[in-house]
Amino acid sequence: MHVRMIPKSTSDRKLAEVATHQPEYTQDNVSGTIVGIWTPEMFHGVRVAGYHQHFISADHTFGGHVMDCVISEGNVEVGAVDQRDQRFPVQDRKYHVAKFNMDELKDAKDKSE
Ligand SMILES: [Zn+2]
What we know:
By secondary structure, the chain is α+β, with helices and mostly antiparallel strands. The chain contains three helices and five strands. It has helices spanning 15-18, 93-97, 102-112, and strands spanning 2-4, 24-26, 32-39, 50-57, 63-68. The protein has a five-stranded antiparallel β-sheet, with no helix packed on it. The longest helix has 11 residues, at 102-112. 3% of the residues are buried. Bound molecules: zinc ion (ZN).
C-alpha cells in the first residue's frame, strides 16, 4: 500500500503551505479498509472528479490517500451515493467574521487533492 498524507495544518501553517509537501509512505502486507468515491466531472470543485480513495489500516496506525496498491484478498462493496452532507461551523463566531481569501482557498484545495 502506497499512500500520501498531508501534515496537519495549524493556525500558523495554513493548508496551502503544508499541502506543498505531502510525504508518501509504503507498507507491505497490511490489512485494512479502502473507502473510495467516484465523482462525475460535472461535480469537480465540490469534490475531486474521478476516483478518490483513502486507506486506513486495521490497527489504525497507517493510512492516507491511496497512490497505489496491490490487493491480494478482500471484499468489495459498491453503492450509489445520492446525497452529500456538508456542515458549516455556524455556532463559531470566528466563522461569521472570517475574511476568506477565495484564491488562497482554491490554491490550498488544488494542492491538497
Ligand atoms: Zn485523498
